[in-house]
């Protein structure tokens, strides 16, 4: 039978004996599968805790084909904490056989595609935007840090076999329309929860017109759909990209079988797409830029792991060349990697941006996670990023719009939201057949030799040590680095107060904020837990403290825990005594993280039962052992009223909960 590309790669990586299936025959959706992980990545905001957990596994060296530790989040060093974490991460990488990407080398996802990604391989990352790797034909999945630690130790990654949604692309993008507009169109149709339990696979003649950076933009922001990952085929365009990066040997063709069947198909004619924008405060609140024209803009930020490639910077430079940003606009641009920065300088793009009035920010995540370059109060900020959750920018009352680099550039010079297709400008990277990548040497300002020189510069990338040298390494731990606290053991019954009731689409930013105030405590759970649920209820920590952190329950609406993969959104609540979270539905990664830290994730069988709950109620959950052993529904009682909780957990997840979390489960030999 014909298989989709996603199915082919997953089947090639299923651990022998973990599930019964016939090679070449589609696996039933929802079946628990265990796959071998070829590569892993971490970033410093999640990495410190990941490696603290990896150390407890007790293996002398990572067992993956390749693992990389990146520093790209906590690069603002206002005191010792972040730099101490960087030193810890570097020493761990040296000790256990990882590559180490130093601060300033760039955003993990872009650097990984440039230096390490391989078509047909699997990549697991402790960052929700790991699916960026799908732009070169990888199955790249975001997960909690402890899942990545287990994979580095040689363990499998478990997931329910996803549905595969096909996205058929035809036509080519017109000038002034970007790859961001493709994924915004998918989000407009599908919503932020439309992709839960699914992989989006792109195919069709329109794919050929998209460069690898454009494809990576689409797969990166596919995370906002709630999808497991997204993937493009690996074709001649992918081959040229890898050749330009000096990695021709990494290429292999990857494509779906002829006649492959998808669970559903979405069709998009690229030639008919218009510039789009995600309005405050959700990535799926999408409108045409033309509908928003005339809204004054006070800030423009270009970069992040979504739109910071050389192609993106070239598109911006083409629009602003010879012009200047409007007087009322502050504009910043963060190249996605050191490689991109070097090439942009060589091509004169950097000079064009500086002359136009852009501030050049560090090659890091920066403003995307509220780490500097926050907007003014009540400001309107246009960002080429992937999330615009309220407060994520660092300014609670700012209006954040997610747009393409083309729209951002046009708006920067006019001072109000502007459709780039209405402007006249020369774009050297645009042809009637689509965008040309500057990486292939077709642009007169940047030769293939220039690209190769920049791509092979690894001055901030430290390779693994030999086993002999690694054995001599001493791991460095600063005073802010604390051990991961143990999970509480599973109990057969719980009788606890409901301390929080949240609405729909609560993000992990709401559960555990990022930003300059909170991120430095990522390696210190007792301290970071003080910020848990702060954006929903600023008094939550005090309420939990009054119980002596002895236990409580949290309730939520639909798509609870969307957004970042940060396991701290489970670790912090676990430390404060949260024992169960009852919602209408969960986002995939957050649900897995709750299981990993021994917190019961329960879904209302009848969503209307959500209305029966009030903060302060006593929630009683009984027969937990039986429910977990047999997979039967959870029995819940609130104020004498019986509520049935859906138990849709896999057998492995139920066993993890019975053992009191993934760490305990793994130590006892669980797979």
Question: Short description, anyone?
Answer:
With 671 residues, this protein is α/β, with parallel strands linked by helices. The chain is 29% helix and 18% strand. Strands 22-23-24-25-28-27-26 form a seven-stranded mixed beta barrel. Strands 6-5-2-3-4-21 form a six-stranded mixed β-sheet, covered by helices on one side. Strands 16-15-14-17-18 form a five-stranded parallel β-sheet, covered by helices on one side.
Give short descriptive properties of this protein.
about 675 residues; alpha/beta; six-stranded mixed β-sheet; 23 helices
Tell me what the structure shows:
With 671 residues, the chain is of the alpha/beta class. Helices cover 29% and strands 18% of the residues. The chain is built from 23 helices and 28 strands. A seven-stranded mixed barrel has the order 22-23-24-25-28-27-26. Helix 2 crosses helix 5. The longest helix has 17 residues, at 80-96. The chain is globular. The model has no long low-confidence stretch (mean pLDDT 94).
């Amino acid at each position: 039978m014909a298989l989709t590309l996603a199915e082919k790669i997953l089947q090639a990586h299923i651990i022998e004996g973990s599930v019964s299936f016939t090679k070449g025959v589609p696996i039933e959706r929802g079946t628990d599968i265990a796959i071998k992980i070829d590569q892993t990545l971490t970033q410093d905001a999640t990495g410190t805790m990941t490696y603290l957990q990896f150390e407890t596994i007790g293996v002398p060296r990572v067992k993956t084909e390749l693992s990389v530790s990146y520093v790209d989040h906590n690069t603002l060093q206002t005191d010792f904490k972040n730099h101490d974490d960087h030193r810890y991460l570097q020493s761990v990488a040296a000790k256990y056989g990882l590559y180490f990407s130093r601060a300033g080398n760039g955003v993990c996802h872009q650097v990984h595609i440039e230096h390490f990604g391989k078509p047909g391989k699997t990549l697991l990352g402790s960052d929700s935007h790991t699916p960026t790797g799908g732009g070169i034909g990888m199955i790249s999945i975001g997960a909690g840090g402890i899942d990545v630690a287990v994979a580095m130790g040689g363990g499998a990654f478990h997931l329910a076999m996803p549905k595969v949604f096909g996205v058929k692309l035809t036509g080519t993008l017109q000038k002034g329309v970007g790859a961001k507009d493709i994924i915004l169109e998918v989000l407009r149709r599908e919503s932020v929860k439309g992709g839960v339990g699914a992989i989006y696979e792109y195919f069709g003649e329109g794919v050929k017109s998209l460069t690898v950076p454009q494809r990576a933009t689409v797969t990166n922001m596919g995370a906002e759909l709630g999808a497991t990952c997204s993937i493009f085929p690996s074709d001649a365009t992918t081959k040229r990209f890898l050749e330009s990066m000096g990695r021709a040997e990494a290429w292999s063709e990857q494509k779906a079988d002829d006649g492959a069947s998808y669970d559903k198909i979405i069709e998009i004619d690229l030639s008919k797409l218009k510039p789009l924008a995600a309005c405050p405060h959700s990535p799926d609140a999408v409108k045409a830029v033309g509908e928003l024209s005339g809204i004054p803009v006070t800030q423009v930020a270009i970069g992040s792991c979504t739109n910071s490639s050389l192609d993106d910077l070239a598109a911006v430079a083409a629009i602003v060349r010879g012009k200047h940003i409007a007087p009322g606009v502050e504009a910043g641009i963060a190249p996605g990697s050191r490689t991109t920065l070097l090439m942009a300088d060589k091509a004169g793009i950097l000079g064009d941006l500086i002359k136009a009035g852009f501030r050049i920010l560090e090659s890091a995540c920066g403003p995307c996670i509220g780490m500097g370059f926050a907007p003014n109060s009540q400001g309107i900020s246009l960002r080429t990023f992937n999330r615009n959750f309220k407060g994520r920018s660092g300014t609670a009352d700012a209006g954040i719009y997610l747009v393409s680099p083309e729209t951002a550039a046009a708006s920067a010079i006019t001072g109000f939201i502007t459709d780039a297709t209405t402007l006249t400008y020369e774009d050297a990277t645009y042809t009637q057949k689509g965008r040309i990548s500057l990486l292939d040497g077709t642009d007169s300002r940047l030769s293939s030799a220039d690209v190769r020189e920049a791509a092979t510069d690894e001055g901030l990338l430290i390779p693994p040590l030999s086993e002999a040298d690694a054995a001599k390494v001493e791991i460095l731990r600063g005073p802010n680095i604390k051990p991961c606290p143990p999970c509480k053991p599973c109990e057969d019954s719980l009788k606890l107060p409901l301390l929080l009731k949240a609405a729909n689409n609560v993000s992990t930013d709401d559960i555990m904020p990022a930003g300059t105030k909170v991120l430095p405590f990522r390696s210190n759970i007792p301290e970071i837990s003080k910020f848990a649920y702060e954006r929903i209820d600023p008094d939550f920590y005090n309420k939990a403290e009054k119980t002596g952190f002895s236990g409580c329950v949290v309730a939520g609406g639909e798509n609870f825990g969307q957004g970042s993969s940060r396991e701290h959104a489970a670790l912090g609540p676990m430390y404060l005594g949260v024992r169960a979270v009852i919602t209408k539905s969960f986002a995939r990664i957050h649900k897995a993280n709750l299981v990993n830290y021994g917190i019961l994730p329960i879904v209302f069988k009848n969503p209307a039962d959500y209305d029966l709950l009030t903060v302060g109620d006593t929630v009683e959950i009984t027969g937990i052992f039986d429910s977990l052993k047999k997979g039967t529904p959870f029995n819940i009682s609130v104020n004498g009223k019986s509520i049935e909780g859906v138990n849709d957990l896999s057998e492995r997840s139920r066993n993890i909960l019975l053992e009191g979390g993934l760490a305990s489960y793994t130590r006892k030999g669980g797979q």
